[in-house]
């Protein structure tokens, strides 16, 4: 049952709490502040620009821009107009851009001048429009234009987040307005975020963590967001003195505790440190606790496909090494390989099973792809292995999916292998990409290559070749030659064998 109404539009919810004069953004780089009223006003100006393209209703708009306030205006304008926002990493290379254009079939691609200039060489068969917002719209205070928030169905798609999914090729997770609204209600309540809060925003904005949590939750709560282009300890930490919430991936916490000046005083007025997107090691949690004089990082767990589903409590006991308990809008289950549920029995840790979830924040499905990630009862299969601990908190203990998590970014070995094999193909016969532990990034990407020719290609040349094609975080940090890849009886590469021999 759908219901068409502008109250269903996420944008309305994002701007409903704050007083118009309250500060929405502080931009430390530009030494500028922006009220909620001004924010809405500039979003309307960008909305007017978008309307000039006369796109059909619910068009998909692919946005590949650097992190800055203009990009945020554009994101919000897209949502306000009821279009579907598809934000992608500005450091994606040619191979990736071609794929997203082909797969998403956007009606409009918003990109930088640099990408637009090379567009015809990069992308084939694109029929949509192109827009480069290099000249920011200036604030016209005297002559405001009001753009109506578009009415949308309850289950209309607000955002498509491309994620590596559970099987390799990047897939678009279709998140509805209702998915985000349910998430915002849960998290505002869980973490008691309100108009007095000041959130540090140093995450990328094209993923769920930086978009749904750090950005949308901040606005929905009527709080102030201090916007940084990227995470740099020296730049960000001084702002802890006048901020209350920090959201980060474990790599950011590793960098904080390794920063000599980070101590109890440096924590300033932060009341809540949140971590997610990758496992937070017990060592990082404990070192952070010690060097801040007693601050417990609140670890939570989520996915692009489900938004945030589990979190340690804000007020209750935060159990180290766990990702907590389900949020109100979510049900979870663990299932063994036969599909049988593994129940929680008080007082004892459970067996390990795949984490599955169902609820209001779970995506509608993958764009244009069959939903193989849902089982016959509608449970979303996360591809993560988990167990109940003795108190009924969930511990993530591994993954079924072949995914590497490097600094919170997800790398699928097959995607990188595919591009490596296209390098002077007669030279590289086989390749296997895998992850190894890394004290800063959690895991780092490594490639084992097979080449039987006497003259082997140079690793630096391979790296250069990959640079224009793939985002930097996917490029292996180390390459090595191997005579043959270890394989099982089915001929499948045994990455675990490579991992073990590499780590010895
Ligand atoms: C950057 N580089 C990385 C990298 N990030 N390499 C491996 N892994 C990473 N994560 C490379 C760049 O390509 C570049 O290489 C060099 O490091 C320096 O780039 P940089 O931009 O200066 O990097 P840095 O600032 O150090 O970035 C580290 C980081 C960043 C941890 C701040 O990776 C980051 O912001 N990660 C957050 C990812 C995130 O938001 N994930 C959320 C997913 S949503 P070169 O060779 O060009 O010099 C999700 C759901 C949920 O998971 O639950 O939240
Ligand atoms: P993404 O594909 O970027 O949405 O990333 C989702 C994946 O991030 C999950 O399937 C997990 O593997 C991982 N993840 C997110 N939060 C945590 C966490 N707190 N601990 C361990 N893994 C996490």
Which secondary-structure class do the elements indicate?
A: alpha/beta
What fraction, in percent, of the residue positions are helical? Answer: 25-40%
Profile the largest sheet: 9 strands, mixed
Number of strands: 25
Number of helices: 13
Say which molecules are bound, naming each kind only once: malonyl-coenzyme A, adenosine monophosphate
Q: For the terminal residues, how far apart are their CA atoms?
A: 57 Å
CATH topology (fold) name of the domain at 4-18 and 33-176 = Rossmann fold
Bin the strand percentage: 15-25%
CATH superfamily of the domain at 4-18 and 33-176: ANL, N-terminal domain
Q: From the coordinates shown, what is the CATH architecture of the domain at 4-18 and 33-176?
A: 3-Layer(aba) Sandwich
Give the low-confidence spans: none
Envelope shape: globular
Q: For the CA atoms, what is the radius of gyration?
A: 23 Å
Provide the spatial order of strands within the biggest beta sheet. 2-1-10-9-11-12-13-14-15
Average pLDDT rating = 94
CATH class of the domain at 4-18 and 33-176: Alpha Beta
């Amino acid at each position: 049952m759908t219901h068409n109404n502008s109250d269903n539009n996420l944008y309305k919810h994002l701007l409903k709490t704050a007083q118009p004069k309250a500060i929405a953004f502080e931009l430390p780089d530009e030494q500028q502040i922006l009220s909620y009223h001004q924010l809405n006003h500039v979003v309307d100006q960008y909305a007017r620009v978008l309307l000039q393209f006369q796109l059909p209703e619910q068009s998909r708009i692919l946005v590949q821009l650097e992190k800055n306030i203009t990009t945020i205006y554009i994101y919000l304008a897209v949502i306000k107009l009821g279009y579907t926002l598809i934000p992608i990493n500005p450091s994606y290379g040619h191979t990736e851009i071609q794929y997203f254009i082909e797969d998403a079939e956007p009606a409009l691609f918003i990109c930088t001048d640099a990408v637009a200039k090379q567009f015809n060489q990069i992308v084939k068969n694109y029929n949509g429009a192109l827009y480069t917002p290099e000249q920011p719209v200036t604030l016209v205070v005297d002559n405001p234009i009001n753009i109506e928030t578009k009415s949308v169905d309850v289950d209309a798609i607000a955002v498509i987040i491309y994620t590596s999914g559970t099987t390799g090729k990047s897939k678009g997770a279709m998140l509805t307005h209702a998915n985000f609204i349910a998430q915002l209600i849960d998290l505002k309540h869980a973490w008691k975020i309100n108009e007095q809060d000041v959130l540090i925003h140093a995450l990328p904005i094209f993923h769920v963590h930086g978009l749904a949590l750090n950005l949308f939750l901040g606005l929905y709560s009527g709080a102030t967001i201090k916007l940084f282009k990227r995470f740099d300890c020296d730049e960000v930490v001084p702002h802890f003195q006048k901020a209350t919430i920090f959201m980060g991936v474990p790599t950011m916490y590793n960098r904080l505790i390794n920063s000599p000046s980070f101590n109890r005083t440096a924590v300033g007025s932060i009341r809540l440190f949140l971590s997610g997107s990758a496992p937070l090691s017990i060592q990082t949690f404990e070192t952070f606790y010690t060097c801040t004089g007693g601050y417990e990082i609140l670890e939570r767990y989520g996915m692009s496909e489900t938004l945030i589903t589990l979190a340690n409590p804000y007020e209750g006991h935060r159990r180290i090494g766990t990702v907590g308990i389900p949020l109100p809008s979510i049900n979870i289950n663990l299932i063994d390989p036969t599909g049988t549920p593994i129940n929680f029995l008080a007082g004892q840790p459970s067996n390990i099973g795949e984490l599955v979830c169902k609820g209001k924040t779970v995506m509608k499905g993958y764009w244009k792809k069959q939903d193989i990630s849902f089982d016959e009862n509608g449970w979303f299969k996360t591809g993560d292995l988990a167990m109940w601990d003795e108190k009924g908190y969930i511990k993530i203990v591994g993954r079924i999916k072949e995914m590497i998590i490097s600094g919170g970014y997800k790398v699928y070995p097959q995607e990188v292998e595919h591009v490596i094999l296209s390098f002077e193909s007669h030279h590289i016969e086989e390749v296997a990409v895998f992850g190894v532990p890394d004290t800063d990034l959690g895991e780092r990407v490594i490639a084992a290559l097979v080449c039987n020719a006497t003259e082997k290609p140079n690793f630096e040349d391979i790296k250069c070749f990959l640079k224009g094609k793939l985002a930097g975080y996917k490029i292996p940090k180390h390459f090595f030659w191997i005579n043959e890849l270890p394989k099982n009886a089915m001929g499948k590469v045994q990455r675990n064998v490579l991992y073990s021999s590499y780590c010895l």
